[in-house]
């Protein structure tokens, strides 16, 4: 539980933010660092593909009602919440308002969703397949949702060329990972590859926050806005945990499936969301745009770790 609630990734991200504040990368060095970040993101999605067992995923797809329910929470209900939150943009500012919208469009987590489902004695196999499917479909669905919901007022410009970037930088490495899984699968599953996982995300954060520091956009962010984002994240997580439980009960899912729906349907992936944001958006505004997702990630881990332990202690 300590490893989940005190996430090493958050430590790295906070370190990257502090480093960007004190020593932001700029000029030609920033260009080279962005190229290195692109390579790291491609390596990350290559590992995602190499780790996913195609046979187990196809076998798990038979439980289609469970997966459709989780996908509906991730890519339908969450975006509706994002739309409902847009009036808050007048207080938060345009950059954070875009970040709140983007937060609701990214896939579900994989590692923590499965871990919490396991702790709570839920359907672990179903959680693995649903969370993995969410991330695979998110490579396409997240950019589509961004174009549909974030470009209508002209504050965000995303054209169809983003799909070429997604295909070459995210999808192609993922497919190569799947094809080479018989050769590299065992290596990809080792703990040592966490260096690539956490390193690529840390690089995205450092690059984005450096751009924000160089552009001087952080003067517009106050402590009350950060506190408000923390409280808002807690409210969203609590709402989604309650609503996913209610819907799962109404659809007559068993206890194990209800738990998988709650933990897969209530969370958003920092590991997938940040690299995709770097590919889709870029620019100085990226540092503001990813801030809500970074805060939401830690809040969901803290709340879900407590809730998973609570479910674990209940009598079956």
What characteristics describe this protein?
single chain; 316 residues; mainly alpha; Na+/H+ antiporter like fold; 17 helices; 78% helix; disordered N terminus
Order of helices and strands: HHHHHHHHHHHHHHHHH
Structural class: mainly alpha
How many alpha or pi helices? Answer: 17
**Measured distance between first and last alpha carbons:** 21 Å
Number of strands: 0
CATH architecture: Up-down Bundle
β-strand percent reads under 5%
Q: Unreliable stretches, pLDDT < 50, 5 or more residues?
A: 1-5
Written description of the protein model:
By secondary structure, the protein is mainly alpha-helical. It has a single domain, classed as Up-down Bundle (Na+/H+ antiporter like fold). It contains 17 helices and no strands. Helix 2 runs parallel beside helix 12, helix 3 packs across helix 11 and helix 3 runs antiparallel to helix 12. InterPro entries: Na+/solute_symporter_sf (IPR038770), Put_Na-Bile_cotransptr (IPR016833). This is Sodium Bile acid symporter family protein. Pfam families: SBF_like (PF13593).
């Amino acid at each position: 539980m300590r490893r989940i609630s005190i996430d090493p990734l958050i430590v790295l991200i906070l370190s990257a933010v502090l480093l960007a504040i004190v020593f932001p990368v700029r000029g030609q060095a920033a260009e080279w660092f962005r190229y290195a970040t692109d390579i790291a993101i491609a390596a990350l999605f290559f590992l995602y593909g190499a780790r996913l067992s195609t046979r187990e995923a196809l076998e798990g797809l038979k439980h289609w009602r469970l997966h459709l329910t989780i996908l509906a929470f991730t890519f339908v209900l969450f975006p509706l919440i994002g739309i409902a939150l847009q009036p808050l943009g007048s207080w938060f500012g345009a950059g954070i308002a875009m970040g709140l919208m983007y937060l609701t469009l990214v896939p579900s987590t994989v590692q923590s969703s499965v871990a919490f489902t396991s702790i709570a004695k839920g359907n672990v196999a179903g959680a693995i397949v649903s969370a993995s499917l969410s991330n695979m479909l998110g490579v396409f669905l997240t950019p589509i949702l961004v174009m549909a919901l974030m470009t209508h007022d002209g504050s965000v410009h995303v054209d169809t060329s983003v799909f070429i970037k997604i295909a070459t930088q995210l999808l192609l490495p993922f497919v190569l990972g799947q094809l080479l899984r018989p050769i590299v699968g065992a290596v990809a599953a080792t703990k040592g590859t966490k260096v690539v996982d956490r390193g690529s995300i840390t690089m995205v954060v450092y690059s984005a926050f450096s751009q924000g520091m160089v552009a001087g956009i952080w003067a517009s962010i106050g402590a009350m806005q950060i506190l408000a984002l923390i409280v808002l994240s807690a409210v969203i997580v609590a709402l989604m945990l309650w609503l996913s439980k209610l819907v799962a009960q109404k659809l007559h899912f068993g206890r194990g499936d209800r738990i998988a729906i709650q933990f897969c349907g209530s969370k958003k992936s920092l590991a997938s969301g940040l690299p995709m944001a770097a590919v889709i958006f870029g620019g100085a505004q990226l540092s503001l745009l990813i801030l809500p997702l970074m805060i939401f990630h830690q809040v969901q881990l803290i709340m879900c770790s407590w809730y998973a332990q609570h479910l674990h202690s209940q009598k079956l």
